[in-house]
Amino acid sequence: MSTERIYDAVVEVAARRRPGSSSWSHLDVGAGNGQLVKRFRDHFQARSSACDYTGELMRLPDQKVDIVNLNQEAFPYPEAAFDMVTATEVVEHLERYREVLRDLHRISKPGGLVILTTPNILNLNSRLRFLWFGFWNLFGPLPVRHSALYSTGGHINPCSFFYLAHALIDAGFDDVELDFDKPQRSAIPKLILLYPWIKLFGALAFRREQTRFHTISPENAPLVRAMNSTSMLLGRTIVVSAVKSTATAASRPSASS
Hints:
By secondary structure, this protein is an alpha/beta fold. It has helices at 4-17, 35-44, 97-107, 124-133, 161-171, 188-213, 221-226, 230-234, and strands at 25-29, 47-52, 65-67, 82-88, 108-119, 173-180, 237-244.
């Protein structure tokens, strides 16, 4: 399940990136009790489909849920079926998220929009927890052999913005944009204290990667720079959106917040 603020952020991104659109064919992955489906119906008159690992959570009486275990199965939909796909708080539960994103590309229409959310493991609170404890926020020690993959305890895939954006582009999506649900106020004092050091050592590391290891190129540089942005250091949940390209040639990635 997501939070109200995450749902609000997804609706805001959809409205900004598809202004004036209505009657979309929409798929909500990990639809839960149907809150986001209802919002898309109310805001956009979307024709929504829902899929999840179970239908028992759904509370909308007229909404069918297609049962699929994305850790083992592909989506049960034909190619180019949806104008819009949303997946809130799903990626962190997936064993093979890159393969799932490639399948999302298959079922999206050319020009279709995909919106994903996942915990921001790179905010300051999470970075410091990793420094002290070795685990990101919302990603703690898992029970061995008894992990409930679909609960918070099933957060098995901590995925930062760079790798999620890279996976989307690698799958064939374009125009990657970065948003957040809200800032974490508790991180603001830490940001004031640590920001000069983050900027200094981040710039030195960037230059070293660029000149010595040659890992940074004009194509991925915007994604790398976003990793230490103020929004990244404060944001609670990342909201990553991308468009299925209508062109055959690959476009260069972008990152905005």
